[in-house]
Amino acid sequence: MHFTGAELSSLVGSYFWPFVRIASMVAAIPVFSSTFVPMRTRLVLAIGITIVIAPVIPSVPVIDALSIPGVLLIVQQVLIGIFMGFIFHMVFAIFTIGGQVIAMQMGLGFATMIDPVNGSQAPVLSMFFILLVTLLFFILDGHLAMIGLLAESFHSLPISTEFMEKQNFWSMAAWASKMFSVAVLVALPAVTALLLINMSLGIIGRAAPQLNIFAVGFSITIAAGFYVILVSLPVVVVQFENSALDAFSQIKDFVRIK
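^ thats the sequence. predicted structure below, dont judge the formating
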């Protein structure tokens, strides 16, 4: 079997260009982008997805990767993959911020540990929410849905030298502003309950100064905070489902999937 230079270049390009987009998304999507996931694992995962997807996508242009159009095409595919993963990364950030707000109200802001998703320190409550939404992400087959969207993106947004429109990036930046509003909704039940408890403790301490109410107020606040979190867990699950669906919708708009 003999291959000409053009045929060999076309064969390599048919796998290389999809690999760039897929590897970029794997490097940016939550869970898989964690610092605790070895680089070799991400590389093997990206190669495996590429081998499965590459044969069923439209034909890719034959471009020298070392040429100026090739470098621009690499940058384009990297941006597409990173933004697809980053959109869902912001969904996880919603619950990190919500956990931080609740922890500060409960007085547990000093209890921190390493966040495996972001690789930085985060309150323990934020870690609890991150573990919860990570389990929900896999239970709801979020990883399979992301691979499906990635495969469809090669049909709706094929590999070509035509650069993406600026409107796609601006729409994603506008969607990122929702992260803070949804984080407030996640923390709102606990923050409201803890605010009422602190107000009650303040009124009791003011009415009866001889009672050292603040000596036990810290324990009461923590116990009440854990109880409110337990009661409001169904709300967290609903917020994650709504945020995930919104993120998938935003990704579809970003890669022009109808």
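Strands lie at 112-114, 121-123.
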